[in-house]
Amino acid sequence: MSATEQHVRIETTTASAQDAKGLAQELVSRRLVACAQILGPIRSVYRWEGAVHDDEEHLLVLKTRAALVDDVKAAVDELHPYDVPELVVVAVTDGSPAYLDWIDAQTSGA
């Protein structure tokens, strides 16, 4: 695995800025992610329980190491208010070596 394949971006959404901020702070505090960016509000149109919904949400973009994906998933399942939270993992295929080193340092537990 190359250095860049060791890093991922994870996306999830929340219904409120407050939920997004709380989730972001907890994941960073636990050193599961180096950074959590909160974008929004955004508009999400989706089908849920047989109906089409059109809701305002906030998108979190989480930066971490691939080795921590399962831990991030478990924490999101624990902390997220949705029954089925979005959780999409995207491999980082290239990036600034200094930035990727920073992600490693922030998520190392040191």
Main pleated-sheet profile: 4 strands, antiparallel
Segments where pLDDT lies below 50 for 5+ residues? none
The rounded Rg comes to: 15 Å
Strand segment tally:
4
Please write the string of helix (H) and strand (E) elements: EHEEHEH
Order of strands across the main sheet: 2-3-1-4
Strand residues, percent: 35-45%
- Helix content range of the residues, please? 25-40%
The total of helices stands at 3
- How much is the average pLDDT? 94
Quaternary status: single chain
**Overall 3D geometry?**
elongated
- Which structural class matches the secondary elements? alpha+beta
Question: Alpha-carbon distance between the termini?
Answer: 23 Å
Provide tags for this entry.
single chain; about 110 residues; alpha+beta; 4-stranded antiparallel β-sheet
Describe this structure in words.
The chain has 110 residues and is α+β, with helices and mostly antiparallel strands. It is built from three helices and four strands. It has a four-stranded antiparallel sheet with strand order 2-3-1-4. A hairpin with a 2-residue loop joins β2 and β3. It is elongated, with a radius of gyration of 15 Å. The chain starts with 6 loop residues before the first strand and ends with a helix. 24% of the residues are buried. The mean pLDDT is 94.
